[in-house]
Specification:
The mean pLDDT is 96. By secondary structure, the chain is mostly beta strands. The strands form two sheets. The chain has a four-stranded antiparallel sheet with strand order 1-7-3-4, with no helix packed on it. Strands 6-5-2-8 form a four-stranded mixed sheet, with no helix packed on it. It is 0% helix and 42% strand.
């Protein structure tokens, strides 16, 4: 498991790049400050091995933002300005380190 804290201003996005290892299952989800899942019933706040759009090299770029920046693998903050996040690999043959950075939403498409 990888747990971390995030906080975004209204014009910011969190970009997460990772290359999922060979594994039975992986997922990423956004949580609130107390590590409880955001409302997955009404908001797209998680992604997994089957729902992600992969890049040609097998990596995944997840973009967390308050509103849809028009790129694949966008997850909404569901109205939260901060919270926690969790990445997990189930029965993985490796445990890669995801790379994260906060950028301006306006710059997302040029990355």
């Amino acid at each position: 498991y990888y747990h971390s804290f995030w906080q975004l201003g209204p014009d910011e996005a969190l970009v997460i790049d990772a290359t999922p290892p060979q594994c039975e299952y992986w997922n990423f989800q956004l949580n609130n400050y107390w590590m409880a899942s955001l409302d997955y019933r009404y908001y797209n706040i998680n992604m997994n091995k089957h729902t992600a759009q992969y890049r040609p090299d097998g990596s995944v770029r997840i973009v967390v933002a308050h509103s849809d920046p028009g790129v694949p693998n966008w997850l909404t903050t569901a109205g939260h300005a901060l919270g926690t996040m969790c990445f997990r690999w189930v029965r993985a043959d490796a445990h890669p380190q995801p790379a994260t950075r906060v950028v301006k939403v306006a710059d997302i498409k040029s990355l």
